[in-house]
């Protein structure tokens, strides 16, 4: 069995050191990152089996990091945060985190939760590619860049998130509720017309003929399906 890799994203050096010693003592390989930007680089290079993430990163909100990561990867995420409010926990879990542990934490409990999360995924989990290509389009999910024929395509944040969510699930019918929940959150699950407007704007940017879309296909009354 290959050694499983855990990426620790934490700006506190002492906590990173503690996690590294503890997890390596349990037989895991540990890769460290102090910022979200560094984590994005390490995710590409080390292909981790588990992500341990602090929400209070110096360069980016941890919730936004989770949302972007979840668009293309199913790797388990364990939040390790000093934020004890229920609202913070709910926001992190709703955004795609798998578990939440508050600081200060017990080492034994941390290891137990890591083991539990890794048991839910195979040693070599099947994650989607960090680069998605269709037609003459290329999406770099790590760098958050979309190009068409090598030229940068400018999308709004919502348009980008909608595109990558659809494109990372080719052939799968994504319901209105699924899309609204993952892009806008629980309060928007009935706003189908809102979603229709954004899909229309996105089609204007990626379809040769928006009136007869090739990639974003409407499933009447249900949602949308993406064709590569």
At the fold tier of CATH, the topology name of the largest domain is Rossmann fold
CATH H level, superfamily name of the largest domain: Response regulator
- Number of separate helices: 8
Which descriptor suits the 3D outline? elongated
CATH class of the largest domain: Alpha Beta
The counted number of beta strands is 12
The SSE order reads EHEHEHEHEHEEEEHEHHEE
What distance separates the N and C termini?
A: 35 Å
Portion of residues within helices:
25-40%
Q: Give the C-alpha Rg.
A: 19 Å
Mean pLDDT: 88
Q: What count of structural domains?
A: 2
Q: What share of residues are in beta strands?
A: 15-25%
| Proper CATH architecture of the largest domain | 3-Layer(aba) Sandwich
Structural class: alpha/beta
Unreliable spans:
122-127
* Largest sheet, strands/sense/barrel: 5 strands, parallel
Q: In which order are the strands of the major sheet placed?
A: 2-1-3-4-5
Kindly list the characteristics that best describe this protein.
40% helix; alpha/beta; 228 residues; Arc Repressor Mutant, subunit A; 2 domains; Rossmann fold; 5-stranded parallel β-sheet
What features would you describe in this structure?
This protein is 40% helix and 21% strand. The chain has eight helices and twelve strands. Helix 6 packs across helix 8 (192-206). It is elongated.
List the helices and strands and how they pair.
Elements: E1 5-9, H1 13-25, E2 29-33, H2 36-46, E3 50-53, H3 62-70, E4 77-81, H4 86-95, E5 99-102, H5 107-119, E6 131-134, E7 137-140, E8 145-148, E9 151-152, H6 157-167, E10 173-175, H7 176-184, H8 192-206, E11 216-219, E12 223-226
Parallel strand pairs: 1-2, 1-3, 3-4, 4-5
Antiparallel strand pairs: 6-7, 7-8, 8-9, 10-12, 11-12
Helix pairs in contact: 6-8
């Amino acid at each position: 069995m290959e050694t499983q890799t855990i990426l620790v994203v934490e700006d506190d050096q002492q906590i990173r050191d503690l996690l590294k010693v503890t997890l390596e003592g349990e037989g895991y390989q540990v890769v460290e990152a102090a910022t979200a930007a560094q984590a994005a680089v390490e995710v590409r290079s080390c292909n981790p089996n588990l992500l341990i993430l602090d929400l209070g990163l110096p360069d980016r909100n941890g919730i936004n990091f989770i949302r972007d990561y979840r668009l293309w990867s199913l790797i388990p995420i364990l939040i390790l945060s000093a934020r004890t409010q229920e609202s913070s926990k709910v926001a992190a879990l709703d955004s795609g985190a798998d578990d939440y542990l508050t600081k200060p934490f017990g080492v034994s409990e941390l290891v137990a939760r890591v083991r539990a999360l890794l048991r839910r995924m195979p040693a070599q989990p099947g994650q989607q590619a960090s680069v998605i290509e269709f037609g003459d389009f290329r999406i770099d999910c790590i760098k958050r860049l979309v190009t068409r024929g090598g030229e940068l395509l400018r999308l709004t944040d919502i348009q980008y998130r909608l595109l990558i969510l659809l494109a990372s699930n080719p052939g799968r019918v994504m319901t209105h509720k699924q899309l609204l929940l993952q892009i806008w959150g629980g309060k928007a699950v009935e706003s189908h017309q809102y979603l229709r407007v954004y899909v229309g704007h996105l089609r204007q940017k990626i379809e040769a003929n928006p009136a007869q879309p090739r990639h974003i296909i409407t499933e009447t009354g249900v949602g949308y399906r993406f064709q590569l």
